[in-house]
Amino acid sequence: MNFVQPTPGTDNHPVVVTRVSPTQWHAVEDDLTVGRGVASRRPDGRLFVSVDAWHGAVFDRVADAMLTDLSTPLYTLVDETDHDSRSAWERAGFTTARREWGYLVPTDPRTTGLASVRPPSGVTVVAAGEAEEEPLRALDRVVRDEVEATVGWRTMPAEVLPRPAGTTVLDPSKHAVARHGHEYVGLVRVAPLTRQPRIGLIAVRADRQRRGIARALLAHALGSLHMSGTASAWAEVDESNAAATALFESSGARRAACTLELVRR
């Protein structure tokens, strides 16, 4: 256990921050837990931290303990509208690394304008659950290598980041693919979450881009959700990804949230 020097509490009781495990810290005041800190390593190797505390002084003490015990760089996520949390992390030396838009995406073709969208000549869309796993995995590796060579996977939502060895966990039931001849050239991943399905990734091989494949994949995914009775889906897009932003906004999606990724180096 790693004890941090006590700090005055909210009722004149000292607050003691204790590292209770390699990834957890507790702040205790008068035998009551008044704050917690958690560190978690993402699949790409980055270490993300979070603090849950009622009072700013407790937040600062827990954050200080974590920063003392952990090596940088460290990352965290905050809602852009949560000014208190953002200020607290900035006091701890974190700065904004990137911004991610959260989109509410309608599925009704009358709203999206995608009813008449079809794949380009020679391309067909293979529905989710019907794609062959090995060609899908091969496409996944190609797309990831191409993205890493350009904008980098750090700009992608955490759920689609590669494992340290470069492999990924693929579930064909969540992926529809675009096929040209015998090759898979694009994919869309939809996680069928209970409250609202999430479009986790739309990607097309670099040599097949700008042909309307991504738009056809989105049309297919949203059309399938609409037929199943789902009114809307959720998607996250990095602010710097102009192509994805244009794709979703031209399909009737509206910005409903904004998440900031903060870093301390």
UniProtKB/TrEMBL annotation:
It holds the Pfam family Acetyltransf_1. SUPFAM superfamilies: Acyl-CoA N-acyltransferases (Nat). Residues 123-265 form the N-acetyltransferase domain. InterPro entries: Acyl_CoA_acyltransferase, GNAT_dom. It comes from the Bacteria. GO terms for molecular function: acyltransferase activity, transferring groups other than amino-acyl groups. This is Ribosomal-protein-alanine N-acetyltransferase. It comes from Streptomyces naganishii JCM 4654.
